[in-house]
Amino acid sequence: METTQALQDKRALVLGATGGIGSELARQLRDAGWEVKALTRRPGAEGERDGIVWINGDAMDRESVVAAARGCSVIVHGVNPPGYRRWSELVLPMVDNTIAAAQAVGATIVLPGTVYNYGPDAFPLLKEDSPQRPSTRKGAIRVELERRLQAATARGVRTIVVRAGDFFGPHIGNSWFSQGLVTGGRPVKAVSIPGRPGVGHAWSYVPDVARTMLSLIERRETLDPFATFHMAGHWDEDGTQMAHAIRAVAERHGMRPRLRRFPWWLVRLASPFVPTLRELMEMRYLWRVPVQLSNARINEVLGGEPHTPLDVAVEATLKGVGCLS
Question: GO: which molecular function terms (predicted)?
Fold first, then answer.
């Protein structure tokens, strides 16, 4: 019979379990033998479904987060405000609540990071110790978020941060892949290319990111109290390889999509009237310059990075977002 400590070592709370990376990591933790709890704001959604225990609560409510985290050794902080909106109001209070819960129960925090932390002086190749001088409001918020996590190590809170490129995958929901390159829920008639010609872009397949996080979670006691890692993911060297991969998969399914430039001009015109598009314009700089991540540290710690072949990952994603029958 397992001891109480052993059971706690295999319990995790996932915040943002309905999102892309949160849901994928919750499933992989479950399949690896973990007892997984997830916070939900939906009334009446509590209970066990598919091996995950759903608990009513809100990431903005500290008492809810602390109560849900009891008995857990890991808290996955995969929650973000939807549609880029209200970051200044929600992002930092939510991470403060996660820190409080981790301190109360002795859990390690796992954070899906972003490249927003970095500004032009850190490009084109990002390493974990590259300077963090962002040029956007969201970037400044992400820097402060990680600063608070790092400061919490003085109170015994441990954190693992995994930064990666743009997410894509079968359960990703809102993403550049499903809303910018193709239109989710419809056959692929056209594939948009958001970047400048010849400008590389980093993509990360969500199941690979979750597998990396799971491997790091299993080694958490051997890592630094504030441990950061970068994933190389799929490097699109000229900014068109992802679009060509989508078209190739679509053609195998009998479609004949065309490639086209992403209509940034239309986003600019509509942005004064649509908050989400206004926030999108702020992040356009990431499509104007090459942004690549070095995974040397992951290779050193894990002996390699999980890497699903691009055509396999693209086909699974297109099926998942409803573009293939």
Answer: aldehyde dehydrogenase (NAD+) activity
